[in-house]
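JOB MANIFEST
job_type = single_chain_structure
chain_count = 1
residues = 265
[input]
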Amino acid sequence: MSMIRVVVLFSTSRLLAQADLDATLSMARQGRLAEAEAAAKSLARARGAAGEPSAEVCLVRAEDLSLRSEKEKDVDAAIALLNESIDLFRSALRASPGPELAAEARRGIDARMCRKASRAALALRSLKSGEDARKRSELLDLATELYEAAELRYADRLREIRKAREGGDIDEEPEIQLNLARLQLEHSRLEGLAEAQRKTILSQAIALLQDLQLVYSDEALAHEALWLEGLCHVDAGNAGEAEDRLLGARSLGSRIRALGKEPNP
């Protein structure tokens, strides 16, 4: 068998495995836990996974907990469910999965840490003006702590990837950079945040997005980075820079579409 054919077969096998995993996790996200767990066990057997629960089952159960957290109105209860979900994603990583499963677990942890911060920020915004100053202060402290923890998680991941280039051909670096900048923009909008801190966070996001554009100047990823940078400048009060970046994003989007591609929204 030729080397080219081996590579093609291997790539096709990985694509099919990823499609099966995506379908399984989609079931979990729809609340079809029993079906998803059965499919996950089947995937684990096909992979020859040893030990229970398998990484696939951990991922499915983590998705189910995340779904339950979205239905929970109490912020503390929602965050507790998200913490349980994170624990399961970490269990999936300890189960020695392949690169695709490991990447899915890492993304799962990232997303749940961000969601915890978002839930605290939402609870803060939901308080009526003048209502319970102590509760408002507690929620501001909680949201700030959670945003900073999620940002630190992304920063640590970037350092690890740049040092070891882990994950083989799964390059998570640009995805993490974009997600970190998006999170920083959200953090900067936290109600009650000091103005100096808000501007510092926005400056960090802008620097990160500019780095992305230098590396991915002709990619759909750069379109979203340019657009997000424009929004950061809007929030920072930099009218000229904001107009320049947003117009640039529109122009880049047109060029990408002319090549038959779709820019990131």
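[summary]
The chain has ten helices and no strands.
Residues 23-126 form one domain.
exit_status = 0
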